[in-house]
């Protein structure tokens, strides 16, 4: 599909396209309520609770007041709706501000000032310096003679460097008066969200030019939300407006990511639902059986069977369904969303992850997946700008078989090269011309100093090096380049630019030297794309050897070539290139095909080598995270030898004999298959050896492997801990992330550039580095950091704490709901299995919303170990990676605890009040008080540290329980009048509460103490060491260590030992089962557990198994 935009002539297309009114809001005043409710009820759990709430409106079956369900349900919906409304109102305010901004528009040859929302497609807009572009424009003219202007595109791609945009050749030189009257038509594709492509054609109507088409690219456009910089004025024609701009189409909510804990909670909730259905069926059948038999023997419970309705058999099952509906806690999602938001704020507020040099804090963009950081098993990382500084320095070069910088370490300080420049050695001069001209760098003068603005750090380094060697780029326009060489001005007319793409991996510029009128093609690019197109008779071996040597030094290499073109040959080729460049469909592919026709028989001038230093702390960070059981894959576009050298310096690959590097290579399907089989045989044979084996593969072999040998490559991914993938494209990076995900591993992708966005969005967790390539990766990521080294703290501290807290909170939420539900079920056995509720509606509502929510919320600051201990002992991350804190086994422990506590509460209450004359409401409040007192001990028992907030939250909640209920007891309506006054004056009440706490918590405390003292896990050991260190620092001597088995050496503490796996921090009533650990296909992590000091230990072989 195409659209035709008539320049400055809106009468030819009235009302065909939308106006420029921006609307990023999700709702309107009319559709907010129905749309928001529809979205909330699209979730299964909300539909379920709505059904329960509706059933409670049937007086015949509801055992409690409907308010006990409707109250929390409305509260939860109101909170979610309020949050959505507030967020949407903020978007509305931003839209209003943008729509009402005043813009200069040319109407019938006269400039008028209108609001931005009134701009139409085809209008000519006039912008001043520092103005924001209100819609997508095709540039028509600027204040500069060459039609060039500068724009800041940080709002759309995050790149802070200024970019040049140029008017189409037919418009260059037109005065402002002519631009007011310009007429023409632009043929462009329908709106899309690709901010890096714009394939269109323009034809101006006479008298401006004959009926000839001019091709347009993204360099001829000004996109919405860009800012005009360092340019007095610019004008352009609107082609895409409103929400149809490229930025407008790019906006939208990303696909939600579910964490491993979320998946586990969904599975456990499904299991609870099935259990609930079974219980309801059993109790319903039992209730109807009791009604038909035993109830006829009791005069006050006798049913009239003759007048029974047909639905009478459904009444009791439905009553039990309403009673058991609280098995699934209604507030679990809201609670988890709330605490996850708090976890994300902890990341934002962490000053230890703040980069002072760049003034960049850590930012959690996605507030819902912080616990997944603690379960990461694979990190797939970019190299340049992520592991390195992305600050390029020209270090070596090879020109005409002579290598410069070998002795000095810096080619710019090599006297031989400096002498060759001053002697005008032809090959050196050609080499420097390519460095200075074949690029997109724009020279800008600021306070008399010549500065270079570049989109690529490599290009900037090359131009700076050429300028140091007296080949200074002075000026660049759309049609020409001026270079100063030793005081002599060299001028080049730019005929065509063959742009760099990730597929071509090279760039060429065809220029005409104005002095000699000869046509030259200057080319630079990766060696694997330059060497095949060099003249076959040229000797390339010296350059190839130099490139290999530079790569082994970890330098970024690039080949430089040159070709003289004949006028006739260029003319024939130019027609084809212009035809391909004018294509609206498949332009990039057609242009690449035509470029191959001219990029042949090149003269290889030499090669450059650029240094990109590692970031501070990268090797230490990778080493620490590898100890935590995290595997690393490096995905880079660099040459293989360069990537290998960087990998070795980063501790990716260990030297022999600790490590081994295997190569997967080949140019055909058969070669790649044989190489894969050979590497796989080696990995299988060495799977029992404690050797760190890595493999390296290049882009071509990877493409073949993913297409024809996918199963073998997946097996290779599962067996190898480290991979180095070279010369990969952005698409291949995303494919590798998906491949690792299919192997059922939790992945984290980290990068810093726009080419890493696909990879970041494909991973379970995406991390962006706010680097010199801009903020595009950081904006697309779930978390953004200033430096790579902060990843260690993000995973080990924030990820681990978040996982621990989320695991406890989710299981505790189910436990406290099951506790009340089981008491109701036990009560049914002494109430004729009739589905009568023991508790009143107010108590049930307050139990979920207040009494059990406040204490558990204080655990958001709980830490089982100090941060220093966690960072010094990264191996304990294995517990999180293996899902040891929330799984069916741990859930069974909480299920058993709720059943036991329910039995204790019910039986103690029944027996203590067996001979007391009391009402049902009194006994109900005794049982309810027992539940509240149990929670006051359950939460502290599972916590590891106490602050004033936690003490107030837990025990203040207990005090609030009595204050609230005493207040309610003063009210005559509600069924609780004087209840608390009566029971609190009875010794039996306090005796019952004491028995409930002692009997309920005694075995739990004893079991926890037994595990900590006699069968501790690694976390318990570290907790003990921390406690001993505290006692030693305070001068208090411990009489005897609680870890007797450790001190006596009776059992070897290892995570793989059955004795040591009997519990984690939150594993109540948990026995050791195979289901409590994740399995990884054939890979065993091997270290020795030696508790040598309070701050360090290692782990013995710990198998994590995964499904194949």
UniProtKB/TrEMBL annotation:
ATP binds at residues 382-384, 459, 500, 524, 556, 636-638, 727, 733, 755-756. Keywords: ATP-binding, Magnesium, Membrane, Metal-binding, Nucleotide-binding, Translocase, Transmembrane, Transmembrane helix. Residues 101-162 form the P-type ATPase A domain. It comes from the Eukaryota. The chain crosses the membrane at residues 271-290, 310-332, 818-839, 894-914, 949-968, 989-1010. It is a multi-pass membrane protein. Its EC number is 7.6.2.1. InterPro entries: ATPase_P-typ_cyto_dom_N, ATPase_P-typ_P_site, ATPase_P-typ_TM_dom_sf, ATPase_P-typ_transduc_dom_A_sf, ATPase_P-type_domA, HAD-like_sf, HAD_sf, P-type_ATPase_IV. This is Phospholipid-transporting ATPase. It comes from Riccia sorocarpa.
């Amino acid at each position: 599909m195409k659209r035709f935009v008539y320049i400055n002539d809106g009468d030819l297309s009235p009302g065909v396209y939308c106006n420029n009114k921006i609307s990023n809001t999700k709702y309107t005043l009319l559709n907010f309520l129905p749309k928001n409710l529809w979205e909330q009820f699209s979730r299964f759990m909300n539909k379920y609770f709505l059904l329960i709430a509706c059933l409670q409106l049937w007086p015949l079956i509801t055992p409690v007041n409907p308010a006990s369900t409707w109250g929390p349900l409305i509260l939860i919906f109101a909170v979610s709706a309020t949050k959505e409304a507030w967020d949407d109102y903020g978007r509305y305010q931003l839209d209003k501000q943008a729509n009402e901004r005043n813009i200069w528009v040319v109407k019938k040859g006269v400039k008028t000032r209108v609001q931005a929302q009134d701009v139409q497609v085809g209008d000519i807009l006039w912008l001043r310096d520092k103005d924001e572009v209100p819609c997508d424009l095709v540039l028509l003219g600027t204040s500069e003679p060459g039609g060039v202007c500068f724009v800041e595109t940080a709002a759309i791609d995050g790149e802070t460097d200024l970019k040049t945009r140029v008017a189409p050749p037919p418009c260059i030189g037109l005065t402002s008066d002519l631009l007011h009257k310009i007429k023409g038509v632009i043929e462009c594709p329908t709106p899309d969200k690709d901010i890096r492509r714009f394939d269109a054609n323009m034809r101006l109507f006479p008298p401006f030019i004959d009926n000839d088409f001019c091709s347009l690219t993204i360099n001829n456009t000004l996109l919405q939300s860009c800012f005009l910089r360092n340019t007095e004025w610019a004008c352009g024609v609107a082609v895409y407006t409103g929400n149809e701009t490229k930025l407008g189409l790019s906006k939208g909510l990303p696909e939600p990511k579910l964490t491993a804990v979320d998946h586990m909670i969904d599975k456990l909730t499904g299991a609870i639902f099935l259990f609930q259905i079974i219980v309801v069926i059993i109790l319903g059948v039992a209730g109807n059986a009791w009604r038909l038999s035993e109830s006829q023997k009791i005069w006050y419970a006798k049913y009239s069977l003759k007048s029974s309705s047909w639905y009478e058999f459904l009444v009791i099952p439905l009553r039990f369904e309403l009673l058991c509906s609280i098995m699934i806690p209604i507030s679990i999602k809201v609670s988890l969303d709330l605490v996850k938001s708090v976890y994300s704020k902890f990341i934002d507020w962490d000053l230890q992850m703040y980069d002072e040099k760049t003034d960049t804090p850590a930012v959690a963009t996605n507030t819902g997946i912080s616990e997944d950081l603690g379960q990461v098993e694979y990190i797939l990382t970019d190299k340049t700008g992520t592991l390195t500084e992305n600050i390029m320095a020209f270090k070596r070069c090879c020109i005409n078989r002579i290598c410069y910088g070998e002795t000095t370490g810096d080619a710019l300080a090599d006297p031989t090269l400096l002498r060759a420049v001053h002697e005008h050695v032809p090959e050196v001069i050609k080499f420097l011309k390519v460095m200075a001209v074949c690029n997109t760098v724009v020279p800008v003068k600021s306070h008399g100093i010549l500065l270079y603005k570049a989109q690529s750090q490599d290009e900037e380094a090359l131009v700076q090096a050429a300028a140091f060697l007296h080949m200074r780029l002075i000026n660049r326009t759309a049609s020409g380049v001026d270079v100063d060489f030793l005081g002599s001005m060299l001028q080049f007319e730019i005929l065509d630019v063959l742009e760099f793409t990730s597929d071509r991996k090279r760039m060429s510029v065809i220029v005409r030297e104005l002095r000699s009128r000869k046509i030259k093609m200057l080319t630079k690019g990766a060696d694997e794309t330059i060497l095949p197109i060099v003249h076959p008779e040229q000797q390339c071996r010296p350059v190839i050897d130099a490139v290999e040597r530079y790569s082994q030094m970890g330098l970024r290499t690039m080949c430089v070539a040159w070709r003289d073109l004949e006028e006739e040959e260029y003319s024939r080729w130019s027609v084809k290139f212009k035809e391909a460049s004018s294509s609206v469909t498949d332009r990039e592919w057609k242009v690449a095909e035509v470029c191959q026709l001219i990029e042949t028989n090149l003269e290889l001038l030499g090669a450059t080598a650029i240094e990109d230093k590692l970031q501070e702390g990268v090797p230490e960070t990778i080493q620490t995270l590898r100890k935590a059981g995290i595997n690393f894959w490096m995905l880079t576009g660099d040459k293989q030898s360069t990537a290998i050298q960087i990998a070795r310096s980063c501790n990716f690959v260990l030297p022999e004999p600790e490590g081994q590097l295997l190569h997967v290579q080949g140019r055909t399907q058969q070669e790649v298959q044989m190489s894969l089989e050979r590497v796989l045989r080696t990995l299988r044979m060495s799977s029992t050896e404690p050797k760190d084996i890595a493999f390296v593969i290049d882009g071509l072999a990877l493409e073949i492997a993913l297409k024809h040998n996918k199963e073998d490559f997946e097996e290779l991914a599962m067996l190898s801990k480290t991979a180095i993938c070279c010369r990969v494209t952005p698409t291949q990076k995303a494919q590798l992330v998906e491949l690792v995900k299919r192997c059922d591993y939790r992945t984290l992708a980290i990068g810093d550039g726009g080419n890493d966005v696909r990879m970041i969005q494909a991973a379970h967790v995406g991390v962006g580095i706010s680097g010199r390539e801009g903020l595009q990766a950081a904006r697309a990521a779930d978390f953004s950091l200033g430096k790579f080294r902060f990843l260690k703290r993000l995973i080990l501290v924030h990820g681990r704490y978040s996982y621990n807290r989320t695991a406890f909170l989710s299981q505790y939420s189910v436990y406290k709901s099951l506790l009340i539900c089981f008491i109701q079920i036990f009560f049914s056995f002494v109430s004729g299995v009739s589905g009568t509720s023991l508790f009143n509606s107010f108590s049930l509502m307050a139990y979920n919303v207040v009494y059990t929510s406040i204490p558990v919320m204080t655990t958001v600051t709980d830490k089982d170990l100090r941060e220093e201990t966690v960072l010094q002992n990264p191996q304990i991350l294995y517990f999180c990676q293996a899902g040891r804190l929330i799984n069916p086994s741990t859930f069974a422990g909480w299920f058993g605890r709720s059943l036991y506590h329910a039995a204790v509460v019910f039986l103690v209450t029944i027996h203590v009040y067996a001979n007391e004359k009391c009402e049902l409401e009194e006994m109900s409040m005794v049982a309810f008080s027992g539940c509240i007192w149990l929670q006051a001990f359950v939460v502290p028992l599972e916590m590891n540290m106490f602050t004033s907030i936690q003490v107030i939250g837990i025990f203040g909640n207990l005090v609030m329980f009595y204050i609230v209920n005493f207040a309610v007891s003063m009210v005559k309506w509600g069924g609780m009048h004087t209840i608390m006054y009566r029971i609190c004056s009875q010794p039996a009440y306090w005796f019952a509460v004491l028995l409930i706490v002692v009997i309920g918590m005694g075995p739990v405390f004893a079991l926890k103490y037994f595990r900590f003292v006699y069968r501790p896990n690694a976390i318990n050991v570290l907790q003990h060491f921390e406690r001993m260190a505290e006692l030693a620092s305070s001068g208090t001597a411990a009489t005897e260590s609680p870890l007797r088995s450790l001190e006596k050496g009776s059992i070897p503490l290892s995570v793989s030992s059955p004795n040591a796996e009997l519990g984690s921090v939150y594993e109540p009533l948990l026995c050791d089962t195979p289901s409590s650990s994740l399995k990884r296909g054939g890979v065993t992590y091997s270290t020795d557990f030696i508790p040598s000091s309070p701050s360090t230990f290692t782990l013995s072989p710990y198998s994590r198994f995964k499904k194949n």
